[in-house]
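Provenance and format

Records in this collection were gathered into a single text stream. Each protein contributes a sequence line and a token line. The two records reproduced below are adjacent in the stream.
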Amino acid sequence: MELDVVLRYAGFAPSVHNTQPWRLTTKGDVVEIRADRTRQLTFLDPTGRQLHVSCGAAVEFARLAVRDMGRACTVEVLPEPHDADLIARLRVGDDQPPTTLEKALADAIPRRYTDRGPYEDRAVPPEVIDDIAQHCGELGVWLRALTRDERSSLVLVLADAEAAEAEDPRYAEELVRWTTGREADEGIPAEATPSWPADRVSDVPLRDFTGHAAHPHAGDSPDVPPGVERDTILMLGTGEDHAGVWIAAGRALGWALLRIAAAGLSAQPLGQAIDLAAGRARLRRELDLVGHPQFLLRVGYGTGQPSTPRHACD
């Protein structure tokens, strides 16, 4: 079976700062996804949690690509106890037609992107959130749509976390490596971080890729204050906190992003609050969480932005 399409589709998966910290290979009817530690963020991801979440998303993209080919697919997570870099092994099985939803999700893989621009004032359909919550649960991951009060608490956590990061020169150095200093087929290009129009601001701080934690506010304009955007914020979390559940969270994230894209919606990560252990611990306290937050997304109807580049698969 030709699996080059599976590798290419797995390579479309989202990853922190578009680091693409994986190596994808095939052996017969087996796809292996390995961690590429040379692409692990040394400042923002000292434990490798975000690397595992990123690789988990690639696992889910690969699984859906196999299903789109009409074959069964078995996923073995961390199959070799003495080989920590082997994230997952996917075994391609017998003929098995994909479901309508699996086809729709696979079709969304090459056109999904992170939209960091403003979103329209339209509510996210509840059935999309319900579908995501159900699939997350099947992977042992919980989903929470933040309430208005929880959103207010999140704003403070995001702002304080990014301000603390901006005070450390290592943070700025790492951002430069993956933005202006990036290679052509990786990282975050300038066109993927658009400036917002003067008449709109987000009520939550979105990452400032200059590293200065500078954000516009509704009161910044001396004339007419801009409208404040309040989109939907989803949190993915787990009961435990180790490599296996990080991969599960990444798989749930990958599925969620494709369900969002298939519904004509956009999403953007709110990474500052969960980059480091201190931010995640504060989120647990502020929101009275039972479990560990693994990912935050703002979701809504976006205006469309160019996709980020990808490096070639092995």
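Adjacent record:
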Amino acid sequence: MSQEVELVSQESVLVSDVPEHLVEVVARLTRGLRESPSVDHRSGVSARFAIAAAEGVAASALRRGARTGEGVAVARVCDVPCVIPTLLGKVEFEMGEEGREAEVVQHLLRVAIAETFRDRLGGLDLSGFTQLFAEGAVVETGELLPADELLDQVGTVPGLSKVLDRLGHGDDASPGEVAAAIEFVLEGLHLTRRIDKESVAGRSVYGV
């Protein structure tokens, strides 16, 4: 996996910052498609798919930055589903999957995020995050929500600094990098069935 992440990082032309954990999600999604019985393996899934996905995620973050006035755009988990419609044209599916293409990719994306979450943050004490929701907090995020607003909703969370360390950020992490880390944790906790989530029109609400 590290070689695939390195390849995508080297070959992609990114218009905004894409944290390495999201590059890994893209690489895992690509591998999942290559191994999926739903995909026509005669056509295959090239490395260009992962590169295009990373570039699309970066573009989504840049659009958010332009629309919300963020100084430095940093990609978050919410930017990945935005590129699925474009990516569908780069994969040949088996005949029996007609009409289910987006569903297949969305499922494999959830698997990729969960696997990356376990790999990157496995064994870490994330009770500071789960306690937020045990106390009744609700956190809304999405492709048009600026980093500062996400950080304001969450506040100070015990254990966040260790999350940032695991994801390759130091004490000087930017607000965008911190928001990306928090959203990654929230989605990972949801996918591992530790918190609830509701998605509506490009928004995700955790804790409902």
